[in-house]
Amino acid sequence: MKKIITTLTILTLLIIPVSVFAIDLGTGLTEDAALRAGYSAGTTETTFAETLGTVVKAALSLVGIIFTLLLVYAGYLWMTARGEEDKVNKATKIIQAAIVGLIITLAAYSITNFVVPRVLERTTGNTGTIGSPED
């Protein structure tokens, strides 16, 4: 059993870098905003927005991994409880807490994903679409 858990942990740690690139937060929007502000499109420095986007991607990936690990742990507790009410209650509480945490995280991401394009639209006059007719 320890070999299986160790193998799954190692595989999870190897998959983490791949999952960070799974979310596209609209890096093209920052290039368009930079062009409208008068900056060069070939600027090599990482902007604050790109850095912040990378941090958010990594944090969301980490939250997803923690959620999955908590569900696996709670499921393992539940399956090995052998009818003991304390262990079943503990597993149920862990599952409920993990789901509530995931809902809060997804709600925060959704609100941010809704608000940021509107702020960009108000401040830059851009609708948030790349290649808009205003170019």
Tell me what the structure shows.
By secondary structure, the protein is mostly helical. The protein has one domain (26-124). It has helices spanning 2-20, 27-36, 48-79, 85-124. Helix 1 (2-20) packs antiparallel against helix 3 and helix 3 (48-79) runs antiparallel to helix 4. The N and C termini lie far apart (60 Å).
Number of strands: 0
Largest sheet: none
Measured as a percent range, the helix fraction is over 70%
What structural class do the secondary elements suggest?
A: mainly alpha
Q: What amount of the residues lies in strands?
A: under 5%
Counting structural domains, the number is 1
Q: Which geometry do the CA atoms define?
A: elongated
Tell me the span between the first and last alpha carbons.
60 Å
